[in-house]
């Protein structure tokens, strides 16, 4: 007879989760959800290459077979975590653009302030997509495909707004703003939120104003 605890888990599994630091408050979640949440947190704060399957299942408080029933491989789990990050980022950016009103200049300013706030957050550890791009250079990797699509989508959202401005080269401005965003996220790893990335808003405002100043006659 298997002895179970008050949550219906075998006692041995419960003890294993405790000693591994598993989140025992989430036992009613499915094993797949616990694996996903544990992996996403570990990948973001520790890095993808540094985190193995053993550590993920330990933190989740589940067994390896539970992980592989939900995700065919670690690579598929990486892709799933990035897809969720991408969905959240897009939803947040869409909300910012909607709140920015109808004026494209105001929308761009709101967008750049949105990214500046993200970078200044105490728990910010870089962009999950950019971090993964450094760790996974192999073309065709499931995670690489997700992050490339996500970054292309982000650039397209910026360009959709710059095209609404009466300027000579809206695509060039979109690329410039992308450079400021990506540069801010990258320099945060070295200098923190008070380093060069603290100038993101001022730099983007100056760039946008410069393009507006040379608008077609």
From TrEMBL:
Residue ranges flagged as DNA-binding region: 52-71
Keyword DNA-binding: yes
Annotated Pfam families: TetR_N
Domain HTH tetR-type: 29-89
Molecular function terms from GO: DNA binding
Positions of transmembrane segments: none
Highest taxon in the source lineage: Bacteria
Keywords tagged on the record: DNA-binding, Transcription, Transcription regulation
Stored PANTHER family: HTH-TYPE TRANSCRIPTIONAL REGULATOR YJDC, TRANSCRIPTIONAL REGULATORY PROTEIN
Official protein name in the record: Transcriptional regulator, TetR family
């Amino acid at each position: 007879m298997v002895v179970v605890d008050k949550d219906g888990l075998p006692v041995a599994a419960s003890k294993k989760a405790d000693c591994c630091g598993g989140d025992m408050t989430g036992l009613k979640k499915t094993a797949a959800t616990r694996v996903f949440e544990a992996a996403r947190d570990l990948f973001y704060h520790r890095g993808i290459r540094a985190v193995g399957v053993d550590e993920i299942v330990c933190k989740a408080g589940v067994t390896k077979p539970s992980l592989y029933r939900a995700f065919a491989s670690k690579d598929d789990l990486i892709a799933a975590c990035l897809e969720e990050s991408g969905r959240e980022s897009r939803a947040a950016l869409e909300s910012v653009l909607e709140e920015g009103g109808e004026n494209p200049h105001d929308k761009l300013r709101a967008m750049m302030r949105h990214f500046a706030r993200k970078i200044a957050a105490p728990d910010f550890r870089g962009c999950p997509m950019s971090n993964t791009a450094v760790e996974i250079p192999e073309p065709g990797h499931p995670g690489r495909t997700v992050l490339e699509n996500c970054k292309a989508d982000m650039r397209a959202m910026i360009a959709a707004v710059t095209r609404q401005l009466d300027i000579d080269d809206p695509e060039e401005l979109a690329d410039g703003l992308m450079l400021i965003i990506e540069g801010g996220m990258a320099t945060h790893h070295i200098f923190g939120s008070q380093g060069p990335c603290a100038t993101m808003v001022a730099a983007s405002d100056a760039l946008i104003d410069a393009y507006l100043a040379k608008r077609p006659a």
